[in-house]
Amino acid sequence: MVSRSGTTQSQQPLDLRMFESALRLFDDQINRSSYDANHWVRRGSFMREHGFPEIAVGDAFKAKLLLDREPANLEARKAVYEILGQALLGCHCHWEAAELWEEALKQYPRWGMAGEKATDLRELLRRKEAAAASLGGTPQEQKDRLKDGGVFTVNYRWTEFSWTPERSLTRSSKLVALINEELRGKDGETTCYLARSTLAADGNDDMLGMFASHEMQNGECILTDRTATGVCSTPAPNSRANCYASLPDTPQQAPCCSEAFCSPECLNLAMKTYHKALCGKDFTWLQRPTVGLSHNASPLRPLLMLRFLTTGVQNLTLRPPTHRAPATALQQTPHRRLHAHRIRRYPSQDPRAARRGHLRQPQLRHGCLTAHMDASGEQ
User: Fold this and answer.
1) Which InterPro entries match (predicted)?
2) Do the bridges between strand 373-375 and strand 345-347 make them parallel or antiparallel, or are there none, so unpaired?
3) Class of the 2-147 domain?
4) Based on the number of CB atoms within 10 Å of its own CB, is 57 exposed (0-12), middle (13-18) or buried (19 or more)?
5) SS3 of 18, please?
6) Closest CA to 2 of 135, 155, 132
7) What is the average pLDDT score of the chain?
């Protein structure tokens, strides 16, 4: 489905043909002259007016960067501040919007709009901070509540846009059957399967769970999942580049740089997904805000987004991974098999856990995301 987003849901349906035609015109102008700030301003304003504030934020910010390099143009700069400020509000990014208007006020002290916007937003943030404090949590969690934005979505028929492929896969019975088929080995046997979760709240809950296909023995490994999109808050000095586990005595060396991996499979996965786009580039500054985190928090999200973006760049496609086989979308392994980190049997912490084992929600252990396999009947 096409998601149109914003602070309020539009009362008028979006004319997709007119929207696509106008968008193609803006895109063509940007392609022909990408350093013209006016093109980014016009497309950003268009996207904001039509309910896509998160896209408008990106366009307006690009225009702002371009104008910072040019001689002073008061009206153009103010127009960018207005579009960017409104778009940030459309995404409920109140913290960032307040900082933006305060920046504008410093540059243009006599601009009444900037002063009013900054004052109103700081007052709103004070009220949100008081509400967040009453919910408890760590300082980082409280800060995340203040800074987390979001958009409402209105669904439109995805296939109306000429450039879009068939809709993404969802949690349908067809998807479950496809994944279970990929989980089968060459001999047709499988150690685990995907099915409706035993932890679902009610019959309308579409939560899925991974189950062992037989009674597990203590310490048994039933699934190996090598992910290309794992992140870690505080990597160990000798951890591997892809999934941050400790390196063996004889690690696999990347052929193009000094990065090391735990196994040929891990190296192959990184090379086929994101590493070529990331190789030789220094993103350590993106890691610094996460150092010391002991729980899932917003500073980890840019690291995860970096993996997704570099995967997209390397594959030169804007199509989401769900348009391909789901279990192999991010790894593209030769045998189209699902691989993962080793999932071992852990003592049950939930009496509702399935008798044969249930893959619980991933948790952050020692700063890294891991998954637990619970088996009922053990303490």
Assistant:
1) TPR-like_helical_dom_sf
2) parallel
3) mainly alpha
4) buried
5) helix
6) 155
7) 75
